[in-house]
């Protein structure tokens, strides 16, 4: 709800402040005093456009500031999404410089007009701006029917599921795009992984293969060399082994009784035995080697394949190749996971769509159930407001696929005059007719919907007497649930005020010009003001009596 409106240097307003409260606030005043100018200033903090020609004093900037209580509107997410500081008391300020430049602030944070318009649409329903009137909005029309049908929770659940569906579909599109652009990469990865699979790499095999290649390539030379060494060490006339044995025997006999020499003897004996083992191992190694051209060819082919892979991937070992293989296999696994994720999301999409179908049918039944009674009630109340021939029909059209608010598209079709063709409200209703229609429509759902502050500009145009009295009663009932502000020339409507503001013009001393002022009327001032509206200025005694009766009724 709006708590305060402050205006400085706007049109014929030098400076004024309006403090609003719950219930019904009435604004009256003589023609041309500036009542609609006040609404024009309010429209600026709702995102309306202006220029420097609207300045009261062309040398100073214009400042419009509104204070709102917003705890009931659940706007925390909106503030977070737009990087704005949230507080239960909201301050919106608009400034227009003499050069025509405009700045807007939300809780002292700069904001653009789009943010102001979105925020303002939640806070104020200003029945001067016919293009944005809630009653024209198909979403509001559906919300209205859902409120009458008592299925707000179902509607909220549907919208939540619909948002899930949109999120799921966005993710699916993203994954399909990834899949399409990555198909060629996937095919190349599959080729590379297959190449590695065929290679069947084993850690450490390269060193073993190179050793085997060396042995096979030099088999005869190795066999001859090892045989010769073995003969030299163990079988010749002057075999090294025999000589070492002779030396060992002599050293052993001398070492008896000498500790230091005994240690040297032990070392010598160990060396002799080690040499015998080496000779035996050399003999066995040589005997185990055979020339094998077929195996050598196999080893060479295997090594050539390893070298090709290493060159291809710019590495120098099988171990590095195995690392690349794991990386390629991991990337390829991502594509497999991508397919699985697409399948999972497709299944989720199917499930959400089925849920939407069930919820949408439930919403449809509730809306179609209350629509005839709603239309009838609207027509009855409009008849009481001097629109006897008005008709309103709720037109349903099934959607081909689930929409954001259900399985149906709804339009309120309206006709104000007898014999006129039913059209959309915006096309069929005049300003006054639209305001009355909005009034009775919202009065039917006042207790069931959380509406913004409702502002009506001369909703009573063209009505008087009993019709105006009924309109005042409707406004009174509506104001029990929502904040309502009405600009009126009707004494019957004005008499229902919880707060009554009077707008008037005053000559400003020293400025040689007229300015707009506003003040809240006390009870006696209200009686006199309404009496003037009933008769003349000054009012007659009978008008004063009638005004008092209207207020106390």
Task: Describe this protein's structure.
The radius of gyration is 48 Å and the shape is elongated. The model has no long low-confidence stretch (mean pLDDT about 85). Helix 6 packs across helix 10, helix 11 (about 320-385) crosses helix 13 (about 430-445) and helix 13 (about 430-445) packs across helix 14. By secondary structure, it is α/β, with parallel strands linked by helices. It is about 55% helix and about 20% strand. It starts with a strand and ends with a helix. The protein has 17 helices and 15 strands.
What structural keywords apply?
17 helices, 6-stranded mixed beta sheet, 553 residues, alpha/beta, 6-stranded antiparallel beta sheet
Q: Assign an overall shape.
A: elongated
| Ends distance | 27 Å
State the helical fraction: 55-70%
Report the sheet with the most strands, covering strand number, pairing sense and barrel closure: 6 strands, antiparallel
Uncertain regions spanning at least 5 consecutive residues: none
Supply the helix-strand structural class: alpha/beta
Strand content: 15-25%
Total count of strands? 15
The overall pLDDT, averaged over residues, is: 86
Order of strands across the biggest sheet?
A: 2-1-4-5-6-7
Quaternary structure state of the chains depicted: single chain
So how many helices? 17
Radius of gyration, whole Å: 48 Å
